[in-house]
Amino acid sequence: MGHRFAEIAFTAAVQAAQEARGSRAGYARMTEGDARNDRLGEKEIDFIHARDGFYLASVSETGWPYVQFRGGPPGFLRVIDDRTIAWADFRGNRQYISVGNLGGDDRVSLILMDYANLRRIKLFGRAEMLEVGEDKGLAEQLAVAGYRAEVERAVRVRVAGFDWNCPQHITPRFTLDEVEQAVTPLRQRVAELEAQLASCEGNLA
Hints:
Elements lengths: L3 H6 L2 H10 L2 H5 L13 H8 L3 E7 L5 E7 L5 E5 L2 E7 L6 H8 L2 E8 L4 E13 L4 H7 L8 E14 L11 H29 L1
Antiparallel strand pairs: 1-2, 1-5, 3-4, 4-7, 5-6, 6-7
């Protein structure tokens, strides 16, 4: 019982590394107490729905890890219920590395970043791929209005555990929309001041 992400991540080898480096005592407490961090709450749901991309890790049949970035409009990653997330998988370069990996091992790890606010969630889960037409209801639920990318399949992940990660060393980055939101009030204020200046110059003339 205890922190579900820690139960998965803190293997015997990881615990040995923690012990050798002096952090084991603090992390040992994470696995005590009632089960937690396997059900998404309101904070996690809001965070997930606001994302326009995430990093997806899978493992090949030869044991090599593979990390892929999956992107789309904000909200394309959906929370189906407190233990399930899903997204429409858009056509990319057609290498199908993640698709092939998940066909042999359904375990995945996701990292979801909010660079602007220095926040991130790490998540473990088990993924299921559904080709277009296999689950019409889910496909409709995951549809992204106005986004022209071709949807090849839906991916549904059963959450096994998650953790809000430490914000240290996250470099702030901003999307065009975030920059526009920050700059718009400044532009409006500049326009107001220019109008006032023009009015003053007119009165002086």
